[in-house]
Amino acid sequence: MSKRGFLGVFVLLMMAILPQGAFAQRWSAQKANAWYAQQPWLVGANYVPDDAINQLEMWQSDTFDPKEIDKELGWAQGLGMNTMRVFLHDLLWQQDPAGFKQRIDTFLTIADRHHIRPIFVLFDSCWDPNPKLGPQHPPIPGVHNSGWVQSPGAKALRDPAQYPRLKAYVQGVIGAYANDRRVLAWDLWNEPDNGNDSSYAKNDPRSKTKLVLALLPQVFAWAREEHPTQPLTSGLWRGEWSSLEKMSPMSRVQIENSDVISFHNYDWPEGFEQHVKWLQQYGRPLICTEYMARGAGSTFDTILPLAKKYHVGAINWGFVAGKTQTYLPWDSWTRPYVLEKPTVWFHDIYHPDGTPYREREVEIFRELTGQRVATAGNGS
User: Fold this and answer.
1) DSSP-based three-state secondary structure for 233
2) How far apart, in whole angstroms, are the C-alpha atoms of residue 265 and residue 262?
3) What is the edge-to-edge ordering of all strands in the sheet holding 286-290?
4) How far apart are CA 189 and CA 176, in angstroms?
5) 266-322 residue pLDDT tens
6) How, if at all, do strands 119-124 and 232-233 pair?
7) Do 147 and 54 contact (CB within 8 A), yes or no?
């Protein structure tokens, strides 16, 4: 047998032996940029309906609310938004895969009607590490995001015996929508090394960062085995990104595995611009998947024009000031705003009745996205 023939047989043999998708690789920068060139300027918000305190309440069958979602995504369309970042949860898949997929499909149908293509987030290291299915507790008065839950929870993260279940969730969801044009991208893990220092730190596993650092590359591999037509990412969120050498180990795993680079920035406009310039050197599309904290200096009037200037996708935290209470500042975990309200809203754009917090912010969105005022709020 010739050397070429032997090589061909070897490749076929390895394809038969290795798991499906083992040869799936990170997109080249050329492919990622070609994909991005086909997209409009991406503008949206991190979305959870007004009547849900967290991901579980948003998606569980008893509390899933298509009418509320339809109404609120109509408001988003009225601003010219074309994407939403939406969090899922592994326990929902474990409980009822078929029902969960059906609700995701319903959500995608509603979003598509409003010309919105979501980025789905599969795992999240922020806030409560002990998620539980069923009725969720009511909001804690005066506290920011008082019911948000991690995925996977601390118990599952510490137990490798549960990792096959997590793999089934990743591949079940991505596999179901790997070729669905209604999905924009997959954000595999939100702030993977967030230690929740101001809230739940004592309940997180002591070795949390080490555990996630080992698991995150596996999550990327699981996702790639489904060959999604949408890009994969996990957003950088802290530290210096001016070079790979200066990044934390977690940030390096994130950026070296992501097809498109996503990041979080709640800084003043000067800080936002600096981080964008740092990330431009890596030659891939940039999407800011969290920004806008008025009290911290990150505002629509300063950040959105910069994002458009650099053709960076812009997805702010919060849309409707509902049960998540993210219009309250982060420091509400140490000093709840019960007797007094904050001077300004921290996150969010709309009151629950659809009234803008600031009319000028709504105007800024419409001006920058080119959205006609006539469509605002009517879902047309």
Assistant:
1) strand
2) 10
3) 232-233, 185-190, 119-124, 83-87, 43-46, 313-317, 286-290, 261-264
4) 19
5) 999 999 999 999 999 999 999 999 999 999 999 999 999 999 999 999 999 999 999
6) unpaired
7) yes
